[in-house]
Amino acid sequence: MTRDADGFVAIEWVAAVAFLLLPVAVLVATLPVWAERKAVASIAAADAARVLVADWPHADPASVADRAREVARDHGVPPADVDVRIVSVGGAPGSDARVEVTVVMPAIAVGAVRAGAWRYTAVAVRRVDDYRSR
After folding, report:
1. Cβ neighbours, 10 Å, residue 59
2. What's the whole-model pTM score?
3. Which of 44, 48, 64, 82 could form a disulfide with 71 if both were Cys (CB 3.0 to 4.6 A apart)?
4. For residue range 4-38, what is the model confidence (pLDDT) as tens digits?
5. Residue 38 lies in a domain
6. Is residue 42 part of a domain?
């Protein structure tokens, strides 16, 4: 006895598109946003650490944070998505200044649609010159 299987191909095709193709397309569209924001966090942290060491020992933490947010804004990341934390200002010549920049990473980013989020933190460390005077 044979059974008529007409119509099952259409259902399988719709299911394949919904469960295989769409998630892969969303992932492919989101990966460049993650890479871009990761690079922005690293660049902003490095620049903030550079400003911190250049103005040592009288560096203003607010201006350092503003510099990191400015760099992020110049690269297309809204300042609201950037959190700057100065871990160490470098207490003495030869010590390290450390800055952490956290950027919000969208879990799904397709065009203007964003859903969910996680955070990525980049760390930059610069050494205060050994022979630098106060």
Report:
1. 18
2. 0.83
3. 44
4. 666 677 888 888 888 889 889 899 999 999 999 99
5. yes
6. yes
